[in-house]
Structures are given as structure tokens and as C-alpha cells.
Design brief:
By secondary structure, the protein is of the alpha/beta class. The chain is built from seven helices and six strands; from the N terminus they run βααβαβαβααββα. The chain has two domains: about 180 residues, Decaprenyl diphosphate synthase-like (Undecaprenyl pyrophosphate synthetase, 3-Layer(aba) Sandwich), CATH 3.40.1180; about 40 residues, no CATH class. It has a six-stranded parallel β-sheet with strand order 3-4-2-1-5-6, with helices on both faces. Strand 3, helix 4 and strand 4 form a beta-alpha-beta unit. Helix 1 packs across helix 2 and helix 2 packs parallel to helix 3. The radius of gyration is 21 Å and the shape is globular. The protein binds 3-methylbut-3-enyl trihydrogen diphosphate (IPE) (2 copies) and magnesium ion.
Length: about 250
């Protein structure tokens, strides 16, 4: 059995459908989704999860109507303002991943204030992916690596996976152990493409605003039963096929 995942990443999907099913405008789904995010962060802290990354706004979500985008950022700002005292009280470190140059200035200020004030939080690291795209993140790391190579700081031949891992994971966060997607779709939608190569994937039809503690616990329980092999073998009969010269290791 695995222990509690150190890092859980969540694609919070299904807000719009939740609202539609109730005959409500889509923004009401986003408002209910923000409550689910708060609930989930609290539950993760209680369960000893070290890092929680929530996908709040993708680099593709700019394709949505301007009114919806406005609501999403104003909800983010409202929640950041309201939650900051609790984050501080509970020892939660908040940070954002993604681009900062395209989001509203007022959101950026609040994000940076929350990052600054919660920097010493040790209990849970809550990361929000905002204007985030996995491919863009990899391309950006490649750009930084190329600049170092061009300046003579780095030999192209010495660039390895580790070089990328260091560039991408500059905030010292381990790769996610468990990736949850709510809302029933089974795709990554450009989320943490580099980091999820060995994450355990968990898809649930539960719409994000309905996601609650029992759903989180079900995902964690499922994760705990997964056998994480990383390409190796963990058990079996290793006898050689007939006529095969022994590799010198006995099974
Ligand atoms: C997820 O819910 C929230 C964001 C992507 C910002 P959606 O808004 O995608 O909800 P559905 O998928 O339309 O139900
Ligand atoms: C993924 O949800 C992005 C976030 C949850 C922020 P989308 O609803 O944008 O994904 P697609 O369009 O269904 O792939
Ligand atoms: Mg969606």
C-alpha cells in the first residue's frame, strides 16, 4: 500500500455543467467551484498532503467569453482576500504557477501579496495554476536552457532530463503522485505535462462543485492500492527461457 500522496494535482472540471443542470448561469457553478476548492484544500491539510496544485485557469481558457473570464478572476480575487487570514492561521503556503503578464493587474497584486505573506507556511503548499499551460511551461524552460547554452554557461551535450526537471520545478515541488480530474472527461487539457509522467491518474464523473471529502478520500484510497512500478518489476518468476545463457542473476 502507498501512503498518503505527497502531492495531489486536480483538474477542477464541471462547474458549467453543474450550473446548467440546475438551470443557473455558469458563473454560479464557478462560485460553487471556489467553495469546493477551499473545502478540498482544508481536507488535504488535515490528511497530511504536502502539496496541492489546483488547475484554475488554463492558457486555453482565454477562448471563453470575456464575461466568464471576468467572473473567474473576480472570484479568484474575492477568495484570495477572504482566505488570506485562514491561510496564515493554518500555516498554508500559497503560490501561483502560470503566466502573470496577461492576468488582471488586480489579481496579480493579490496573488503576489498572498505569496509574500504566506511564504513561511509549512503545513500545506497550495498552488494555483492560473493562465497555466503545460506545453508553454516546457517551452519556457527550453528557452532558459537555450539562453544558458548560448551564453556559454552550459554545454548542449550536457542537457539532460535533470536539466529540464530543475528548470521546470524551480519552486522545489515534487512531481504529483496523484492527478484527479473531476467532471468525467479523461484528458489532461495541457496540465503539468512534464510532471505527470508517473502520476497515478484518477478520473471521476463527480462535477467539481459537488466534490467533497468522501470523494477526496475515495481517490486517495484508490491511489493507496496502486502498484507504482516506474517501469521496473516488483514480483514474479525470473527463471530464464530454455537454452538462454544465464545472465548471471538467479531468479
Ligand atoms: C472548470 O469548469 C472551471 C474552469 C475551466 C475555469 P468548466 O467551466 O470547464 O465546466 P464545464 O466543463 O463547462 O462543465
Ligand atoms: C481544464 O478544463 C482547465 C481547468 C480545469 C482550469 P477545461 O474545461 O478548460 O478543459 P477542456 O476544454 O474540456 O479540455
Ligand atoms: Mg470544462
Amino acid at each position: 500500500m502507498n501512503g498518503i500522496p505527497r502531492h495531489i494535482a486536480i483538474i477542477m472540471d464541471g462547474n458549467g455543467r453543474w450550473a446548467e443542470a440546475r438551470g443557473l448561469p455558469r458563473w454560479r457553478g464557478h462560485a460553487a467551484g471556489a467553495d469546493a476548492a477551499r473545502r478540498t484544500a482544508r481536507a488535504c491539510a488535515e490528511r497530511g498532503v504536502e502539496t496541492l496544485t489546483l488547475y484554475a485557469f488554463s492558457s486555453e481558457n482565454w477562448r471563453r467569453p470575456e464575461r466568464e473570464i471576468k467572473v473567474l478572476f473576480s472570484l479568484l480575487e474575492e477568495h484570495l482576500k477572504r482566505e488570506l487570514p485562514e491561510l496564515l492561521r493554518e500555516g498554508v503556503r500559497f503560490s501561483a504557477v502560470g503566466r502573470r503578464d496577461r492576468i488582471p493587474e488586480s489579481s496579480r497584486r493579490l496573488i503576489e501579496e498572498a505569496e509574500r505573506r504566506t511564504a513561511d507556511g509549512k503545513r500545506l503548499h497550495l498552488r494555483m495554476a492560473i493562465d497555466y499551460g503545460g506545453r508553454a511551461e516546457i517551452a519556457e524552460a527550453a528557452r532558459r536552457i537555450a539562453a544558458r547554452a548560448a551564453s556559454g554557461d552550459l554545454l548542449p551535450a550536457s542537457i539532460t532530463e535533470e536539466t529540464f526537471a530543475v528548470e521546470i520545478g524551480r519552486d522545489g515541488v515534487p512531481d504529483p503522485d496523484l492527478l484527479i480530474r473531476t467532471g468525467g472527461e479523461q484528458r489532461l487539457s495541457n496540465f503539468m505535462l512534464w510532471q505527470v509522467s508517473y502520476a497515478e491518474l484518477y478520473f471521476t464523473p463527480v462535477l467539481w462543485p459537488d466534490f467533497d471529502r468522501p470523494d477526496l478520500d475515495a481517490a486517495i484510497e484508490d491511489y493507496r492500492t496502486r502498484v507504482r512500478r516506474y517501469g521496473a518489476v516488483t514480483a514474479g518468476n525470473f527463471a530464464d527461457p530454455p537454452g538462454q545463457p544465464s545472465a548471471g542473476v538467479s531468479g
